[in-house]
């Protein structure tokens, strides 16, 4: 089995760092291109719908993501991950916006990746959450091989 393009999903968590290092090592071994992917989720705007009881709100999703934010994330990807990937590996940094697992799956289909590496769990805007639901969706629906990278006991 060989790989030409290896994708790696990140949310900048420590587990995502493990996934990027793992994907970088594999990309070097197989002389593959590495795609480091981050998805910017759409902004969530709580809206008060009952002014007598503001505890009850509705949530709206704004599909537009500021292009400056995308550029900032691209810069952060490069700055954060360049040192984690072997220097002779060709890296493409990819910033997508939308629903995380949907955008990742769409990108994997469109780009023809042979393997995707994800962390076992990560971070969200609400703090530490189980990244497993994203990894699980990707593992079940991706049209390529999926590797879930877990940190070693000594590094966790």
From TrEMBL:
It comes from the Bacteria. InterPro entries: Rossmann-like_a/b/a_fold, Universal_stress_UspA, UspA. It holds the Pfam family Usp. SUPFAM superfamilies: Adenine nucleotide alpha hydrolases-like. Residues 3-150 form the UspA domain. Belongs to the universal stress protein A family. This is Nucleotide-binding universal stress protein, UspA family. It comes from Desulfoluna spongiiphila.
């Amino acid at each position: 089995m060989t790989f030409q393009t290896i994708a790696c999903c990140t949310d900048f968590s420590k587990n995502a760092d493990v996934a990027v290092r793992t994907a970088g090592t594999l990309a070097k071994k197989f002389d593959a291109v590495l795609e480091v992917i981050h998805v910017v989720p759409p902004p969530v705007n709580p809206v008060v719908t009952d002014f007598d009881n503001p505890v009850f709100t509705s949530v709206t999703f704004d599909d537009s993501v500021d292009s400056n934010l995308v550029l900032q994330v691209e810069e952060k990807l490069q700055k954060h991950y360049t040192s984690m990937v072997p220097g002779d590996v060709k890296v493409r940094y990819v910033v997508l916006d939308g629903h995380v697992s949907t955008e990742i799956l769409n990108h994997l289909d469109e780009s023809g990746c042979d393997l995707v590496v994800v962390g076992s769990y990560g971070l969200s805007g609400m703090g530490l959450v189980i990244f497993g639901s994203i990894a699980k969706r990707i593992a079940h629906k991706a049209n390529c091989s999926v590797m879930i990278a877990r940190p070693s006991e000594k590094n966790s």
